[in-house]
Structure formats: C-alpha cells, structure tokens
Specification:
The chain has 11 helices and 13 strands. By secondary structure, it is α/β, with parallel strands linked by helices. It folds into 2 domains: 139 residues, 3-Layer(aba) Sandwich (Rossmann fold); 154 residues, Rossmann fold. Strands 2-1-3-4-5-12-11 form a 7-stranded mixed sheet, with helices on both faces. The protein is elongated and about 65 Å long. It is found in: Cell membrane.
C-alpha cells in the first residue's frame, strides 16, 4: 500500500513538472521606433525605416504587441516626451529616425543608461548606450560625380547645393574630385543657393550643362525646372540623394533623373533590431576623441548605394571606381 502511494505521488509530481510554466523562457524584447515628422507614408526616411522594421518583424517572427511606433510633431518638447515615455515603459531598444532626434537621444540616453538607443543618419551622440548609425554619403557623391562626367554629352556637368547645409561645400568638392577622376576634361559648374534654385538651374542649362547633381531638399524645384527643358531642344537630367529628397521617388520625375545616391535607412533599422535580439550591439568606434560609437554604412556593406534611374548601365570605368572606393583606395573624401 505504501509503495503504491509513493508511486502515485511521484507520478503526480512528474505531471505537475510537465505542466508548470517555463520560468526560464526568454521574455520577448520590446522594441520601439520614433519616426520623424509625418511618419509612415512620407515617401522618404520614415517609409524606409518602416520597411526595415517590417522585414525584421517578418524575419524574426516578432509580435506586433512588442513593437511600438511613435510619430513626432517635430518640436524638441514632443520628441523628448515621446522618447522618455518609451524608455519609462521598458522598451529595450529605441530607434530614432533622423538627426532631428540628436538632442533628445543625448538627454534621454543619459537618464536611462540601461536602455539601448539608436539614431539613424546621425553621428553626434557621445553615449555608450547609443548606436549612431550614419552613412558615408561622400562615397556615393564621389561615384555620382564620376558617372555624370562620363555620361555627359556636352562635357559640362553641374552641382546645385543648399548653402544652409554644412555638407554642401564638402559634397561639391567630393563631387568635383570624382568627376575629374573619371574625365579630366569635364567642366564642373556649381551654384550654392539660399532661397530658391529655379534660376540657377536655368543658368546652368543655358551654359550647356546636361547633367546636374543636387542636394537641394527644400522642394522639387530643381527637378521640376530641369523637366521643363526636356520637351525642348535642350535636355538635362537631375541626380540627387535619397531619402533626403523624397520627391525623387515620385514616378512623374523619374524620366528626368539619371541616378540617385541612396542611404539605406531600412538596412540600418533591420540590422540594429537583429543585433538587439541576439543580445549584441553596433558600437564600433566612429570618433575615439568624442566617444561616439555605432556604425557608418558605406558602399562596401551596401548601406550606401548608387542606383541608375534612366539610361544605359554603368560601364567598366564606373565599376572600377566603385571597387576602388569599396577597397579604400580612394583617399581624402572627408
């Protein structure tokens, strides 16, 4: 009798063990993304970031209950309120889209040192719990300069930059260097403008320029002005940078484009989520003096690309220049 009772007791204990919840099961990671103004549907940076999020959800079979998406109205106060809310609610990874979040991330990451933050398209937040995910756009601009120099029929190409952008003069110098590397005889004309670019486009086209690269992102006037010439005797194609110039994505303008330099926000979001899920980080040294960590995407890792929009495929010379950039053989691009 005693033996039968002991057997029954052991059977019950074993059954209870099988039915008990596994307290060692991994708790799902909570991940949040704070979009810039406009959120999804902007045809630009937010849509690209959302595409990376969607791929990560599908690839890693994430529950949407563990994902939180926020949209800012663009003010500093709103950005701080939203990101602090996410940190207080124990989201382990908070991804902020765009350099407009830099001050916010700097403040909130200091308040929540055990939370991992990532900021896309910025390289200024010096915190060890922040991944600055930036882009070596200079490589793309150099390659674009080379491509425009080779495809130009007139031997005259142009650059229109936003004078208010600190990167414009640097991009102009890099663009010119790439153009001359590909075609020493090419003429590069440039205009750095303040308020409007229409008259500058017309001047360049009147001077014989048939290819223009621009980082003007305030409006679509560069590409729309260029398009106005393409029904006449003079023809000019426009190239630019995505997702900054989101209007380049509109199908109506693509027939008036030659190429785009692309910053892969989607890849950055997808990879930082994968790193978090694997309990890893993306904290390479970007600036040892300033203490800035993260990852700078480039042509080699596919985070920066130059994509043809219209015209014949890039030739062997562009392929060689691209390979030289990827191998680090092209110097002084900063």
């Amino acid at each position: 009798m005693a033996r039968r009772f002991a057997y029954l007791l052991l059977t019950l204990l074993f059954s209870a063990t099988l039915l008990a919840p596994n307290t060692n099961a991994a708790t799902p990671k909570k991940i949040a993304i704070a979009y810039d103004v406009g959120g999804r549907g902007d045809n630009g940076s937010n849509d690209l970031a959302a595409a990376g999020l969607e791929r990560a959800i599908k690839k890693h079979k994430l529950s949407r209950l563990d994902i939180r998406e926020q949209i800012t109205d663009g003010t500093l106060g709103d950005r701080i309120t939203r990101v602090r809310f996410l940190a207080r609610n124990k989201y382990q990874l908070i991804i902020c889209v765009g350099s407009g979040y830099a001050d916010t991330v700097r403040r909130i990451s200091n308040e929540f040192p055990n939370t991992q933050f990532a900021i896309i398209d910025d390289e200024s937040v010096a915190m060890t719990n922040v991944s600055n995910l930036s882009f070596a756009t200079n490589e793309g601009v150099y390659l674009a300069g080379a491509a425009l120099a080779l495809v130009s029929k007139s031997g005259k190409i142009g650059f229109i930059g936003d004078k208010s952008e600190a990167s414009s003069e640097r991009n102009l110098a890099i663009f010119t260097k790439g153009a001359i590397a590909a075609n020493a005889k090419v003429t590069v004309s440039s205009k750095l403008v303040d308020t409007q670019a229409t008259s500058e486009v017309r001047t360049l086209v009147s001077d014989g320029v048939d290819q223009i690269f621009t980082n003007w992102f305030r409006s679509d006037e560069v590409i729309s002005t260029g398009a106005s010439f393409n029904s006449g005797s003079k023809r000019v194609l426009i190239s630019g940078i995505l997702p900054d110039q989101y209007f380049l994505n509109f199908s109506a303008g693509k027939k008036n484009q030659y190429l785009t330099v692309r910053k892969r926000f989607d890849l950055a979001v997808e990879q930082i989520i994968a790193a978090e899920l694997a309990d890893k980080n993306m904290l390479e040294i970007l600036d040892s003096k300033q203490g800035i960590y993260g990852h700078r995407y480039n042509l080699k890792d596919g985070g920066v690309s130059v994509r043809l929009v219209s015209g014949a495929a890039f030739g062997a010379k562009i392929s060689k220049i691209s390979n030289d950039l990827k191998a680090g053989r092209v110097k002084n691009l900063s």
